[in-house]
Amino acid sequence: MKWCGDHLQLLDQRKLPVQQQYFLCYQVADVIDAIKLMVVRGAPAIGITAAYGAVLAAKQHDTAELLNTLDSLAQARPTAVNLHWAVKRMKKRVIHHQEGQLDECLLAEANEIFQQEIVANQQMAAYGAELIAQSNAPCNILTHCNTGRLATGGSGTALGVICRAYQQGLISQLFVDETRPWLQGSRLTCWELQQADIPFQLNVDGAAAHLIKTEKVSWVIVGADRITANGDVANKIGTYSLAVLARYHQAKLMVVAPLSTCDLSMASGSDIPLEHREATELCYLAERQLAPDNVAVNNPVFDITPAELVDFIVTERGIVANPTAEKLKNLFEACAV
Ligand code: MRU
């Protein structure tokens, strides 16, 4: 995403990997559409986009209307807490604004959020790669969904760790889940890895168990959309299955997420609103119909991995091994977030 003075430019992730087209947001309504329609997706990227959406909203509305519009913006997608976190930060700026032009003040805040996420990505990459280095590296790794530049605006969460580990010679083989139904893995992660010149193999999600067993995968590395106070993790549908598989096969599960993805206001994963998306995501692939007319579809796009299946949460402020409520609380207190 790129701020262009009077509008926000987003690389349209619906069109990748075939076309590189930009979606331009001149109004906050365009930003809400972009988030809902998944022009932009991935928890930190949604948060950054929403922050710039607030800048556009400030150009359009007076303060009362602006605060209502920001509430609508926060509702664009339910699961990734970064959206709510970013909008909350922008609202705070609106409420406490005293001097100067409000939109300029909000732009400074949006730029700061963007910059902080970029720095956080670098720090998480270093921490995560260090964990891999301390294990039986070089090793085989499996990842799910897209957690790179497209999802974060920086080097990535899980994919940032993977890229750093590759540069350090710590990876023998990288497996990429295609990530049904929206195919973030095959369409976006493969595209990013090719650009970074990092070798990998793409597999269907259903092959993960077989690959973890037969290829002796040591690490399953994923991002997160929300981490609750007890360490439960909401992430792309299929993450929970991977966590169970990893534990069964003695692979380690590493969840890489900035503090902006942690929501200590929620006690556990059962409190997280999980997004369900439309049936067409399963029943059609572009124009091609994949299922008979009128099939009943259940399409949850996130799931909850219980903390007890998570070996490490890697944040920009350190690593939490075998997460518990107490350990996460201590981390936040140490950072005074
Ligand atoms: O539905 P999406 O594509 O927005 O879901 C994205 C994910 O689940 C990612 O794994 C998550 O946001 C972490 S990426 C930094």
UniProtKB/TrEMBL annotation:
Pathway: Amino-acid biosynthesis; L-methionine biosynthesis via salvage pathway; L-methionine from S-methyl-5-thio-alpha-D-ribose 1-phosphate: step 1/6
EC code(s) of this entry: 5.3.1.23
GO biological process, one term: L-methionine salvage from methylthioadenosine
Species whose genome carries this gene: Spartinivicinus marinus
SUPFAM superfamilies, A to Z: NagB/RpiA/CoA transferase-like
Annotated gene: mtnA
Keyword Isomerase carried by entry: yes
Gene Ontology MF terms in the entry: S-methyl-5-thioribose-1-phosphate isomerase activity
Residues binding substrate, per UniProt: R41, G42, A43, R77, Q184, N235, K236
Catalytic center residues: D225 (proton donor)
Keywords, alphabetical: Amino-acid biosynthesis, Isomerase, Methionine biosynthesis
Family membership noted in the UniProt record: Belongs to the EIF-2B alpha/beta/delta subunits family. MtnA subfamily.
Protein known as: Methylthioribose-1-phosphate isomerase
